[in-house]
Give the backbone structure.
Amino acid sequence: MKHLLAIEGLSREQVERILDRTESFAEVGRRDIKKVPTLRGRTIVNLFYEASTRTSSSFELAAKRLSADLISIKSAGSAVDKGESLKDTIATLSAYDPAAIVIRSPQAGAAGLVAGWTDASVINAGDGMHEHPSQALLDVFTLRRRLGSLEGIKIWIVGDVTHSRVARSCLLAFGLMGAEVTLCGPPTLIPRGIAEATGVTVAYDFDGLGEADVVYALRMQNERMSESFVPSLREYAACYQIDSRRLGPRQLLMHPGPVNRGVELAPEVIDSPQSLITAQVESGLVVRMAILYELLTGTDRAKPERGPAPAEPPRIGQPA
Amino acid sequence: MAKQTTQLIQRDGEPADLVIGGARLLDPRTGIDEVRDLVVRDGAIAELAGPGAAPAVEGAEIVDGEGLLVLPAFVDPHVHFRVPGQEHKEDLETGTRAAAAGGYCAVIAMANTEPPIDSAAVLGSVRERAEREASVPLGFIANVTQGMAGSELTEMAEMRESGAIGFSDDGLPIRSARVLRRALQYQRLAGGVIALHAEDPELSGAGVMHEGEVSAVLGLEGIPAVSESTMIARDCSLAQYEQATVHVQHLSARASVEEIAGAKAAGVQVTCEASPHHLTLTDEAVRSLDSRFKMNPPLRSEDDRQALIEGLRDGTIDCVATDHAPHAPEDKEVPFAQAAMGVTGLETAFAALHTELVGPGVLPLETLVERMTAGGEPFGIPAPRIEVGAPANLVLIDPALEWVVGEGGYESRAHNSCFDGRTLTGRVLMTVAGGQVAFRQRSFAIGAAA
């Protein structure tokens, strides 16, 4: 694998390989000294055209834990602000010969374009409403740790699917791993054709919610009200909020964050034992370490002796 | 002095003297479909002689047409030549050269330029440039509303007298039904068919591709098919009420074909067009997020495409129009949603349709020829004919020749072809437009000389 641009097009084997690698990095995370020299001397560019807390910080920390040199660029205050085109920005950054470019953009397809303009590995950290593959991988990892396998698991993704790249990547990744996915939300916020295109089930109310093993709530953005997708947050919450009444005791709860407390989730379920929200954040770091490792030292890019065997974590202090 | 055929303008040039020997001549309008020698003398068709029986014409170029096809040349009612204001994308010289390379003998340029062609002064200036630069007869559409703002009518009567071939705000719909109604009423004075870009901006929103299964997965905002068909329904109702004549541009959806069929059956004076890209591609091509597949209206579903083909076959769709929309590389080398709408089309229209529709037996060659030559008829420009005495508007084609689009570059200044890199079957070797040899394929010219 050279790039991670989307879940679409990945095989189950490729996903499992990254998850297995993640397990080994999770072990590193439990040590006192969490840094390994695997990517020493290599440069990683974090290029964020959109606000982000957890994705940008976890990629940053993942790069640092792998001993890479890191450049972080946010659109505000950069040449992008002065109207530089994406193509020109990539040409400039490529002059530093980075091993990887991690890009978040409000534009669908931006990461794919960048992959055609640079020799670096490109990681899509979210492109418009299209995909957010590292999020889906960390969610699959979180669920696999908790449940052992996603095979036959029923997962309901609830909320504003139309505007959600997380939903698009997750429904593909969950499906790939054998789960049965249902999308549920206001009819105005479920994209036309999604069921036919992906084989998921679509529901507009919670009548069947009881069958779900996992409820994955999406963030509901305020601006959707003014575009008449939903009449009010109040009505949205009345119809689609996950609260302790609707979430059964054996059902797991997930959310990609940041949470609108009291809108898509009632406060009491966020901190309930069924909530995997904190586990998701923890997984975010190790999954992103595994992604960087897989792309930058993977067998098709480097000689085997340069890196440790796939399932075996690199030892501290060992030369890379 | 430049020659002026109705409202079409072409620069001065040598009238052609040609003998094309032994080619298959095909013109569904005159009914000819046989191997003959075709003699062009002084820019007009002088003789259709039996094979090998053509008399020697002094000074005439002799072309060996064996295995080749001669058709009446094509007419495109919808191109964007970007003059004035965006000559870095295309100009009249490069645009008409692209038209000639595609086998066209007449093209009609849209008025969404910078500034738009909304006054007799701007119209006069582009017509003057055409007299110097147009290698293929070229006509100009003028705007319906001032500045294409959709609120006040242009001086349509004056512009009609100054050579406007018709009127359109193409690029934008006429949002206000009231303004369109006034324009249709005013047609009784000014004349000139009104060509309509049918789209409801409220339904299109910020959409960038067809709303369907592909947009659902890509997370791109969709343009629903009803955005087009509901506007066609509105426009046809108004045309019927005002007894006006309209031409609906670039149909893309099944529902649109059905609206037009219904309107025609009800006696509305309406014609319409469809483009080679809508007839050969679907929104599946957009999965790549390649901006070469971004245009308005968007590529739609396979079902829509089938309806367009059926409409072209049964005549609901009157003609093929390329909507040739050249763009600079920087307009397209950006993420899909930010990329400019539009694709070039003149150089690939026949080959694409021949390869995708005629080759597999979906559409008879005769029907394709009829639809590709009929583009002027909605605007009162008769279709070219292969008959003795007619001005020479001819295209010589090798129907079996395979070529890779873009391999030898483009005649157009722009490279944003949605067929770039594809192998197509059937290539234009020579075009005679307005009695002049407007194009000769380089490889073919060398062969002819030897």
In short: The radius of gyration of chain A is 20 Å. Chain A has two domains: 12-132+284-306, 133-279. Confidence is low (pLDDT under 50) at residues 301-320 of chain A.
